[in-house]
Amino acid sequence: MTTLLAGPGRRSDGKHAAPPPGRFRGLWNASPLTYITLVVALVLSVFPIYWMIAVATRTNDVVSDVPPPLLPGGNGAENVDRLFGNPDAYFAQGLLNSAIASGAVTISTVFFASLAGFAFAKLRFRGKNGLLLVIIATMMIPVQMGIIPLYMIMVELGWQNQLQAVIVPFLVTGFGVFMMRQYAEQAVPDELIEAARVDGCTTFGIYWRVVLPALRPAAGVLGLFTFMQTWNEFMWPLAVLNPDNPTVQLSINNLANAHFQDYTLMFAGTSVAVLPLLVVFIIFGRQIIGGIMEGAVKA
């Protein structure tokens, strides 16, 4: 088990280990069909993004070319300049608003979801199961059904066209609480909590010093998924924000709704909007995979 947890083909001391016999041998000896399938899936997944970036560096006359252009052009910098200078898109403001909203929602969701997940998993209090059922029930209601009452609340608070209207309603999610609760059940031993209590640690101190480090893989996964979801959110910002104070998705939508469909401008905006997500995946990709695999091993 120690050898398996240390990584494929590597022992806990860093040296290579021989592939285990029997039913695990297939993990090391993949067939050529497996590689072909993976390559085809990779090409089908990456090609639309690559084609979008290639067209974003060209002019509009190549959008409908058959076959499509496969090499980048020389108009990338010009298209980006036109994108940020477009008076109808407010693209720089959209990027800033999306960064603020996504960062605030992600930090809040991870904090409150991990705190509530710890409480539901390891603390004893009256009504715990009933409250957990209520949280699970919120996951069964489509978000679209809550837009009208939520919009009415924003009007009463005077938060129309203000960024807090995009942030405050999503500071914590039922899915995040349930996910962290399930992970805390497996990752945090009861003996560790009892030992912290014997040492005189408060409940919040146990959460901060003992539970939160153990929940770090799941918190990383939840944070990245929350950041992506908030960054790509379109319907609610469209309902509560004005075109002069958009998120990045509304800025791209303003480009698409122009009288003249400038596809290179739209693709340039989409390419710039995707860059933060790619950076997040590149930096924290190992944390996502490590958190998912660790959860699978514990389960």
Q: Can you offer a commentary on this structure?
A:
The protein is built from 14 helices and no strands. The two termini are 14 Å apart. By secondary structure, it is mainly alpha-helical.
Features of this protein?
299 residues; mainly alpha
Largest sheet: none
Low-pLDDT runs: 1-10
Radius of gyration of CA atoms, rounded to a whole number: 24 Å
Question: Count the helices. How many?
Answer: 14
* Overall helicity: 55-70%
Shape: globular
Report the strand count: 0
Structural class: mainly alpha
Strand content: under 5%
Rounded average pLDDT: 84
SSE pattern: HHHHHHHHHHHHHH
State the separation between the terminal residues, measured CA to CA. Answer: 14 Å
Question: Can you give me a brief rundown of this structure?
Answer:
This protein has 299 residues and is mostly helical. It has 14 helices and no strands.
